[in-house]
Amino acid sequence: MQIGIGLFLVCHDTLFQWPPGIITTVANDNVIGFSMILVGVGFIWWAFDDQRSIRWDHILLTVSGGFFFVLTVYQFLHWCFLGLDMPWISNAALTAIIMILAARSDSGAK
Fold it and tell me: What pTM was computed for the model?
């Protein structure tokens, strides 16, 4: 899922239109999309790794949750201020699932 959203962000360079200025430039930058793709590849790599490091699991869940939270809030603001159709509800659900997974992940602490 994260790889697909990252590819979508890379392919749509003018997706975000508000607020005008530096924030829009940063949000539409391909670095954001490629970063999401890398996190998605990291999840796949972690799933196939025999050792499955708990530390990497926590890092990937934290970064992924952060990406989805910021994306959801930014899409919600677009919907509120511009009336553009943005998938903020589905991204909010994905953010909630990531947060639940992060809270239930095994920390190794007893």
Answer: 0.81
How many CB atoms are closer than 10 A to CB 15?
17
Alpha-carbon span 101 to 7, nearest angstrom: 24
The SS3 assignment for 30 reads: helix
How many Å is the Cα radius of gyration of the chain?
15
Ranges 33-37, 97-101, 103-107, most confident: 33-37
Which whole-number Å values give the CA distances from 69 to 73, 92, 96, 97, 102, in the listed order?
A: 6, 7, 9, 11, 14
DSSP per residue over 68-82, as a string? Answer: HHHHHHHHHHHHHHH
